[in-house]
Amino acid sequence: MIRALLRLLLASLYAIAGVLHIVAPRPFLSIMPGGLPYPEAIVLLTGVAELIGAIALAQGWSSTLQRAGAIGLALYAVCVFPANINHFALDMARPDNGLGLAYHIPRMFAQPIIVWWALWAGGVTDWPFRRRHN
């Protein structure tokens, strides 16, 4: 029951983020590391990826599809981590420190938790809750 609720919560958060990437891309464009080609297309496609992953994770008729969505969202969280680091560096370089350390430090620590959450909620792993069989 808890896993299902947390799976739906994570899927909802990713769906909201996906919609925001598509309808309001400017904040995402502003934190994208420089040198990447076609930043507008990247932000749009990341929004689409979040929506597809959220739908796959949330649906209840196929555990295979849920696991695929979970793996996709976990990989997505790993792939966007450089943008989070870039946002941190950009903010800390501002005279007012932007959103500050109170925002960025927890966000850095949250990223691996989000990766685990996707994998656990999607049934890819039971760690650390599974019992050892001796």
What do you see in this structure?
This is DoxX family membrane protein. The chain crosses the membrane at residues 41-58, 70-89, 109-129. It is a multi-pass membrane protein. Keywords: Membrane, Transmembrane, Transmembrane helix. Its main location: membrane. This protein has 134 residues and is mostly helical. It has one domain. Helices cover 74% and strands 0% of the residues. It has six helices and no strands. The protein has helices at residues 2-23, 26-31, 39-58, 63-79, 81-93, 101-121. Helix 1 crosses helix 6. The mean pLDDT is 93.
Order of helices and strands: HHHHHH
Low-confidence stretches: none
Secondary structure category: mainly alpha
Distance between the termini: 27 Å
Count of beta strands: 0
Radius of gyration: 16 Å
Total count of domains: 1
Molecular shape: globular
| Mean pLDDT across every amino acid position | 93
For the report, how would you describe the main beta sheet?
Answer: none
**How many H/I helices?**
6
Q: Report the portion of residues in β strands.
A: under 5%
In percent, how helical is the residue content? over 70%
Membrane topology: Multi-pass membrane protein
Keywords: Membrane, Transmembrane, Transmembrane helix
InterPro entries: DoxX
Subcellular location: Membrane
